[in-house]
Amino acid sequence: MNRAEDFKELVAQYSSVPAAEMTDDMSLREDLGLSSLDFMTFLGEIEDTFDVELDLDRAVQVRTIGEALDMLEELVEA
């Protein structure tokens, strides 16, 4: 598995959309239905799963899967 697939599998735990059907332009809240509580819990899981520390101010600005993956890549490579 690659990081993007792992990330989508994580998102799928909070969504009714299967990971295989997710695209980078899908909105985490509107298209995938993550509530505010789901999103905050999800952020914690990202930190644990990928061993990164998120900047909460930046993380809450993320709207799409693609934006989230870009942010994750930057954090992993830092």
Task: Provide a concise account of the structure shown.
54% of the residues lie in helices and 0% in strands. The protein is mainly α.
Structure description:
The chain is mainly alpha-helical and 78 residues long. It is 54% helix and 0% strand. It is built from four helices and no strands. The mean pLDDT is 93.
What is the helix/strand order?
HHHH
Helical stretch tally:
4
Mean pLDDT: 93
The count of strands amounts to 0
Class derived from helix and strand content:
mainly alpha
Low-pLDDT segments, ≥5 res: none
Instruction: Tell me the β content.
Output: under 5%
Principal-axes geometry comes out as: globular
Distance between the termini: 21 Å
Q: Sheet bearing the most strands, described?
A: none
> What helical percentage do the residues reach?
40-55%
Radius of gyration, whole Å: 11 Å
What would the keywords be for this entry?
mainly alpha; globular; 78 residues
What's the arrangement of secondary structure elements?
Layout lengths: L2 H10 L23 H15 L5 H4 L5 H13 L1
